[in-house]
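Purpose: get a first structural picture of the assembly so the mutagenesis plan has something to point at.
Setup: two entries, given in the order below. No constraints added.
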Amino acid sequence: MNQVSDFYDSAHRPSLMLEELRAVWRYRDLLAQLIARNLTVRYKRSILGFAWTMLNPLLMMTILTLVFSNVFRVTLEHYAVYVLSALVLWNFFAQATSAAMSELAWGSGLFQRIYMPRAIFVLAAIGTNLVNLLLAMIPLAVIMLATGVPFRPALLFLPVPIGLTALFALGIGLVLAVLAVSFADIVDIYQVALTAWLYLTPIIYPPEIVPAQWRGLFALNPLYGLLELFRQPIYAGVLPAFDLIVAMSALAFGVVAFGWWFFARNVDGLAYRI
Amino acid sequence: MDWRTASERELALRLDDVAVRYRVPHERVASLKELAIRRLQRRVQFSDFWALREISFTARRGEVIGIVGKNGAGKSTLLKVIARVLRPTNGRVRIAGAVAPLLEFGAGFHPELTGRENVFLNGALLGFTRAQMREKYERIVEFAELGEFMDAPLRTYSSGMVARLGFAIATDIVPEILILDEVLAVGDAMFQRKSFERILKFRAAGATILLVSHNLDAVKSLCERALWLEHGRILADGPAATVVDHYQFGDSAIQRAPGMLAPEQRWGTRRVEITDVRIKNYNGDAQTIFATGDALILKVDYRAHQPTAGLTFGMAIHRHDGMHITGPNTSFAGLTLPTLDGCGTVTFSIAHLPLLEGLYHISVSAHATDASEMYDYHDRAYPLRVVNTDACRERYGIISVRGRWSHTPREIE
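Result (structure tokens, whole complex):
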């Protein structure tokens, strides 16, 4: 039985970060079950099921393409692919971090009664949305074909930005999830922040529409870098600059390390909430 | 790492001086906005609430321990500390063996998933791998008696069916340490008996079981030992029947030998000493719980240290709240005792105990008939519990007068 390690001593406190990591590994079947549950429930609840995962960004893209090409007269070649490639990654980040909060809140009813590694709920949120991201890339490929954007070997680089964004989202999700159990309004505040973040990031517009002296500020936006790593191989068919890859890797690993530390340090305290 | 010393090999868990402190904000700050405002005003104040204090006990393998106490006494916190969900603020908790807590009814289930999918999800939440769950699946379905429903979504189940499934998953294999928190009351009567039997089987197989229940009869019949928690401390730790009696009726419910009586419960010159008092049923077996209408026989053993004449033996019954119900004695009954010397027994028989359900106390006395000297008085020293049975279903007042009701219809002229 791999339930709880057979001997427990509350006075013996190994590194909390390592302990949580080891426990997650022991409970990896639970992680798979939770992800499967999230996907099954989503599939069962709506008639369109998985198709909805693919249709949602497509509809968003159609609206944005119509608005931006006709109203704002953005003359960007292959605007549809430009916006859709960034949108699927953005959706992944936004939905994974939001789900991290709701998953942990759901799990708190369980882990206040029985032992389980609590990070598993945040990981399940990220994992579920990773699957959704992969599904959403199917319509992206279709649009690329339809609009004549060529498939270049640079696409093979995509697992790197996806992995880095997942780590970044995990780090942010861990911090938000712990805070949201104590402070319910974090969820609402975060939704507003996400909307602002969406418009402050060159997702639906090219960075060139921002005056040159302000453009440097984009470098402060970690998501912009990750989006570029993802969008350049798709939209331009080129590998991103090496120093951007290094900088974003450092960022993603830094954020996930901080998030894990913050989570492990504070999650024991959640059981003290009555 | 095994923390047990050679002499502790039989231990399943050990708590040393465990304390848990909750910090309770004076006003609950549930949102960030409030916290920001309070911080600015420097008004976030916490008060400490000690949910557990100075808790020390050990449990051996195979021991079944009941935990009783009022709501808020710390029972759930104690279970959380043992389930390693909560790290104690102070002290040390050590456990040898896997802890299997029984989840509250329906927790961790998803209504949209089928019964089958829920079995695997719930098993994973309890820490079982997929392979382990595949191996257990058939047994779980059989025990829960839900064979034909396993592919239907859980939302179509009745609450009893959900409870059966939850119980079946959690208790499929004999756990090393099982935590049961008010879970025996699920399902219909049939399933309750089935789950009760399964727990008895675990007990026989050597599982250590911690049982929290407001059902004191269940605690008495399942547990050999009980802990009584009050305000986060262990007030009593001992045989389940004794601790539950203590808890239910306070200190006064414990039967003591005359030699153990407190000084304020016993007085007199002891020229004639009451050496033992026994309460028996019609078979002559010692008993302290009677039903209304039962026969009760009180045996009072005495020793007269000197020849004593003009002696009266008496008894009294008081209700738990102090109300004096009756006080018969040998003089009232016209029984004149000879001059007594040495040992003997005085017997008082009640053919039909008229008392209704409740806790009562019996007093006995030996005194001079002219009331000039009290030889030995045991004030409300012997508890007597009366319970309701089908034989007498009266529940108003103090006694049953054993009257008869009849009805005569009057014909209309």
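Residues 17-270 of chain A form one domain.
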